Amino acid sequence: MKNTRFALVFLMLSAVFNFAVAQQKYHVFELNDKYGITDTLGNEIIKPIYGYRTLIPAKNEIYLQDFSERPDIIFNVKTGAKQAYESVYDSKVFIKDVPYSIVTSKGKKFLLSEETEKTISFSRDYDEFYRAGKYIIALYYAQDPVVSGGKDKNGKFLPPKISAIRRHHAVLSNDETLKTIVDKGFDKYMPLYKAPKEEKDDRVVKLETVTLKPSNPIFDYIILSQGNNHRLYNAKMVLVKAFVLAKPDEEKLFDYAEKLLKVKLSTMASEQHGMVSAPPMMASPMMPSPSSGPRNWSQKPEEKKPFKPFFYTKKLDDGTTIFALQETEEISKRIFEAKANIKVVLNTGNCSIRISTDTKGYSGFSYNPKTGEIYLPKAYLAELGIKLI
Predict the structure, then answer these.
(1) Which keywords does UniProt give here (predicted)?
(2) What is the DSSP string of 224-279?
(3) pLDDT tens for residues 26-41?
(4) What are the C-alpha distances in Å from 389 to residues 146, 184, 223, 234?
(5) Are 217 and 269 a contacting pair, CB within 8 Å?
(6) DSSP 3-state assignment of 156?
(7) CA 131, CA 352: separation in Å to the nearest integer?
(8) For the whole model, what pTM was predicted?
(9) Is 354 exposed, middle or buried (CB count within 10 Å of its CB: 0-12, 13-18, 19+)?
(10) Best CA proximity match to 280, nearest among 348, 352, 207
(11) Which of 159-163, 164-168, 330-334 is predicted with the least confidence, judged by mean pLDDT?
């Protein structure tokens, strides 16, 4: 039953994806490892000059990213609207499980939701974010205070000494306010979790396998460290104790916290924090195990399912590869053929085709899930060795 439900979910998601592809007016394509945008008629909208592309399905958007002096683009595949920014880094922080991108515009950074049009401005120039239960650990760089250079032997003022730029972190609330909870600089942190109680059973020896779910476990304690100085906080970010521990490593900090708190701790989240025990492998009562006994001759013969059109690729005797639609059991419609030196890989799951040669990089494009019409600017057909039929 579980496999059946999974198959149904997969089919539903595939149907939704195929419908979305069919409804789009614009599509991303790849030419020799560079990405651009085309419309459904084969007109080039954005030249293939970007090194990366990221799909944002919830907003019908594509990020075209180059991480260079060239501006990054946010492009809407339904409306054709596009906006250029200095840089766009996707999924850099999750606020209540909603992914946000870091966008730089006119020298200023802000967070942009990947599900809505919500934006969040920064109170500080943060570079990286890490989820830690109900909080977010944010990285920023700060310059040491400027120190006077003093005077030389003639009494003239010397230029101030060069102050170092150091890495610092802050603890923020995991919500849209990004409220600062702890702003005392630290460069390392270690979440701690209360270890689950061991259940003794003299009758049976139990063996359990644990697997970590994709989650954001809530810690019971956390140690924030800067050099030899450490601060232990509880789950509400209330300071328990500040202490000094020379030459610290994770084991020493862990042992110190256990002795101080007088509780068994773990660096791994327990079941209530996201760890779950894998169920034992056993046959489902709805799915009897195979048997070597006599066949059930009263079983009804399998009914022939109605034919469903499908796409396929086939290499011909002369070396060329065709992409075609099998419309009926008897009728096959060829859509294009590729030269013998072209390798064609069909992915029916996301309605895309990827091609390559021995001398050039990868290229690729999507196709209409109903008709098989390919979404690639016509100007590149000859270059890629493709001939429409």
Answers:
(1) Signal
(2) EEETTEEEEEETT--EEEEEE-SS--HHHHHHHHHHHHTS-EESS--GGGTEEEPP
(3) 999 999 999 999 999 9
(4) 71, 67, 66, 68
(5) yes
(6) coil
(7) 34
(8) 0.74
(9) middle
(10) 207
(11) 159-163
In this structure, which long-range contacts are made by residues 278-282, counting pairs with CB atoms below 8 Å and at least 24 apart in sequence?
278/208, 278/209, 278/210, 278/211
216 closest CA partner among 112, 90, 114, 96: 96
281-285, long-range: CB < 8 A, 24+ apart: 284/1, 284/2
Query: What six digits make up the tokens of 59?
Result: 């907003």
- What is the full DSSP assignment across 81-140? -EEEESEEEEEEEEETTEEEEEEEETTEEEEEESSSS-EEE-SS-EEEEEEETTEEEEEE
Query: 27 in helix, strand or coil?
Result: strand
Strand partners, 233: 222, 239
Q: Are 269 and 193 in contact (CB under 8 A)?
A: yes
* 212: amino acid identity, one letter: L
Please state, in angstroms and rounded to a whole number, the distance separating the CA atoms of residues 237 and 118: 28
